[in-house]
Amino acid sequence: MAKLKLTEILDDRPVKLSVELPAVVHRDLVAYAEALKTQTGQAVEPTKLVAPMLARFMATDRAFARARKVAAPHVASSRPAGMVGKGG
Fold it and tell me: Do residues 33 and 44 lie in contact, with contact meaning Cβ atoms separated by under 8 Å?
């Protein structure tokens, strides 16, 4: 049988994670959700902003990208398609 182009399917199931945020960060997250609602007309729960914000932060951190490349050059990005940020 010929070798398939796909070599692996990444596990893209959501992982539940509990975090404690400082009150000021939570207030800013709520304010960001309100600003987003004003700009787009779409209401978003502040908790739904955390994953795209973290993904964007990591996607644009050049030092992290270099460190990741050095640590595991054979591993592709674990960022699911459609996430905010460069590439994808």
Answer: yes
| pTM of the full structure | 0.66
What is the C-alpha separation between 26 and 47, in angstroms, rounded? 9
- Helix, coil or strand: residue 5: coil
Which two tokens mark 88? Answer: 């994808």
> Does residue 46 contact residue 36 with C-beta atoms inside 8 Å?
no
Per-residue burial over 30-57, b if 16 or more Cβ lie within 10 Å, else e, is eeebeeeeeeeeeeeebeeeeeeeebee
Confidence label for 10 from pLDDT (cuts 50, 70 and 90): confident
Tell me how far apart the alpha carbons of residues 64 and 72 are, in angstroms, rounded to a whole number: 12
